[in-house]
């Protein structure tokens, strides 16, 4: 008898949603994609070609999708503004949930997903911080965790997108929560992972500029931002995000300990080909986030599936996703107020700097 | 209705056989692994755990496996000595065949597989030169093919294994055809791919030493070999193979054209982590062949499946596999005779050098 | 007739002073080292062996050195606390001056050197920002200056020393001006070079930790610091300094423009040797600042000499050295107050953030 | 009293000669360039501007230069065809000699320089194998010498010039001794250094093509050559030379031992700048030999000077220069005969392969 497969549905078939759907359809051996939801006619058309022939039911109503017979788990990959609402509905319908990051751009709404999940402790509810599933970030974590670098003290991380000359991200900015929530939430999540999930923030400060899209200011956003986050206990993280990288996506991190240092993706690799030309020696870089992290998304699908089927632990706690949004929002606030923001040793806002 | 899947069987469940079986079982969406053959009790035991629960029939008789109802294609991944025999039997039974490299260490026996395949032109019969399915080698080929480097003139390629202190390869050497057939057959195949499948060899010469395993000499083999292959038309390839790399598997190639140069894997990459330590800056390297080429094997399975299902062209001709063995055997002969070997413009052996 | 040589004296024969002396003695063809000053007996002993036999007069009194017949130029390479005083005395004595960085840890005292130099416009007075003489930093500047990267917008730079387990830098900290003045003054100077010498600072903020030397707090200093400096006109620089690098000195910078990005020394190089070992592939890094910048110091000596002899322009204005100290002091102040500091469009301190 | 300086003359003021002259004039503190010889009017004109004002006597007659009062040492940097003759004359005149490589393209003539030097054992006579003075090659040697790689077994080395579209090297070929003598003599010398100066060659074989300059065949030369040199005692070297590199000069080597591997300049570095552009990440490479080895030439001058002044040992024996030419000539002969050439255990030519 063939092993049981997890019955999965995918909500949202936009750029990332379509990828998630295909991963669960073709590259997650223990899962079976049974349904997909999208209200978009163009996405429905795509699904008729790429999913329906493999037996996937296409829904234009989210609730209808949730009622699919035998459905066990839902991937929420719609626009950020409905992540939380859909995740909560799925939880209430007794489905496991893999929700794209962030849960919400609001700390309170993010927390409401955590609260909902607590009412159903048998469900697996997680947020898709893809870098947590990447071989290289994991390799670095494991080295650090086995004391290879001494006490981790400084963490630098950046999320830098290849310049999209269409300026798409300007209008997108009004719903994205701003660059520190939309982009750096990944870096913040990594800081929490590497420094310890229960690290308590001591201060945050951010500065930014609009180098290519001055109109971003109307949405209180920037296209290049730098933020510093200090944690209680002598740990410091600093972040950079940019919307204008020339060579391609460049996400990287470094973790400096009292004895050694680890870097992850300091030198981006497209293929292993190097070109020696009259202008020098050149290698290409992955152009986009997915080009860099495709395998991490597949691992995410595989491990989420295993956790649901085997009732095993997910690799990280959902509450961390709220903490990351909280820090991202504080950085965005500091960017716009021009002030450093302080927190006391319980993580509560404070008027005074503790030095 | 779900799309039709190719019914595949895997012959041989040793190190590579087990990997092929799992790739067809889990990572080749359009294929279904239905049967597997191995005479080895330990491999049968493994298959009972990893394959049988997913509905794969385990056979200890190759012919029985071939008779599996509905079977359409066979992966031959047994020891090299039976590759050709099993491939021919499968062809005779009207199965598509993906045969591990080399078809045989004998030119004549290799040719007999090609001859058999010609009697069944509707079948897809191919040899698993895994590097042909690797993204980086393909990227380099495509660049060369689109005239990025001028006229390709010099090709250097190496197959270097991490030192196996067990000396396993000594006893293995008596059946492997020697280092130029066993290891460099990959590099020779790449030379034929990059220089053109119909390139005609003009001369070959090889030299080698036994740096770590002097006992190899009893099987007329070496643990480090260098060979030069000249082709008619002003093209030159040179190869290196080694059984004693310290840092890990290091396969690499470079193709030098009249205008530019491309290298593939000159700088091996394990993960994207770099370690800064008191002894310097360090990165790890993939330890083994599979660590480097895992994804290429999956692509091989996927493309072989598509060719069988859609009756589309395979990415290369089977006759090339015979040509690669022919050159590998000539290098091994040169190693042992101490002489350069010449060929005329039709590729036939010649006593005289043409300069 | 042999060409005239610049008559130079070197004040201070400590670590850097001795190097400067030898550069002018042996590696600056158009200069002649004629005198050297040091009050330290151990340094006098060294000079007796390494300088005196080549005809260099050794003085234990600075004024005596200044009176050396024919003396034209002085290198000030003593401890920071007397840089300004000695530079001013030399100017008053009508000598050209190459003063080690920083002029002083005080903005006012730094400015007094500039003021003194203005009274003698025929003299060449400069501050030894060694990176300005480094081939790689110059190459990057030239590329940027010829519009290779669009509008430069983000500058990141770090000065990271190899961990000195002796903790020498703790006691040194009380006179060094703090990590942002002592280390990052180089990075700040580079920011002013790349963004334009007349860039006006808009805000500064800094955070830091003591990861290896908690006693630094008594001198209001840290061993790892991160600072952000925003300039009017939409430019942002951020800096990192550390006293605890494992692999060696790691100074690096990157300049991100609206079209391209340049990095300098992202991958430190000791020699061109790479070691492939069971633990991976490794290269060494220059252990110390001088290992990285030796040639830049020689170029500095050569160009300073040429400017004095030929009355040609120095590569940068002395006033920039004051601006760099001003920003460094503001970062150090922000570190200790926990507050962001604002400046108006004329560069004057302001209570309010301009957003 | 100032220390005594070695009185040096430079013969030949062509490309390399002019550089040698300037190195001894400006960058070799213990030497003094007192005379220079060239018969070329354009070179005389250059010398009038760059050397004469510093007190260097310019001669158009070699013997006149040799008679310069007080002259102690001669750098021979003329065309290869007169290297030996001038070196011998200088030896007879009791001068130390630094002769550019090769001593001659003829083994016999090369040997005559060694013979002459033996008659004057108090003189320092050496051949300018510049890579022996390069920090990176030395670093690799020292590591190997301190047993870092086990028993050195395989040596690969290449000398690849940037393509000179003028085709200058075609006419030059008739006097250069061919690519294996002109270019690979460096690599052969390195093999002798790394494997031991007394290594005895067992066989040589070479193959080559004319990829860009077919006219080279008229001088029995090629523009791309590959050679294999086997040494008695289980050591193997292989060499590549090319006249058509796109990205710049690319000399590199790797030495593979039974335990580890070292590479030198596998990744060429121009400056430490990396450019991130829409086409990828790029670094430049030194365009020419001098760009790569400038500092090695300065070290060569410095160490030659020290050996002469202090009567200390030169870093290598002159006889090695003959051995390198001997192997280079054998490779060139093999290229043209199409045959492998054998040597017995005393290094004498043999008809039969020893296996």
Automatic annotation (TrEMBL), chains A, B, C, D:
Keywords: Oxidoreductase. InterPro entries: Gfo/Idh/MocA-like_OxRdtase_N, GFO_IDH_MocA-like_dom, NAD(P)-bd_dom_sf. Residues 138-260 form the GFO/IDH/MocA-like oxidoreductase domain. Signal peptide: none annotated. Residues 7-121 form the Gfo/Idh/MocA-like oxidoreductase N-terminal domain. It comes from the Eukaryota. Belongs to the Gfo/Idh/MocA family. This is Gfo/Idh/MocA-like oxidoreductase N-terminal domain-containing protein.
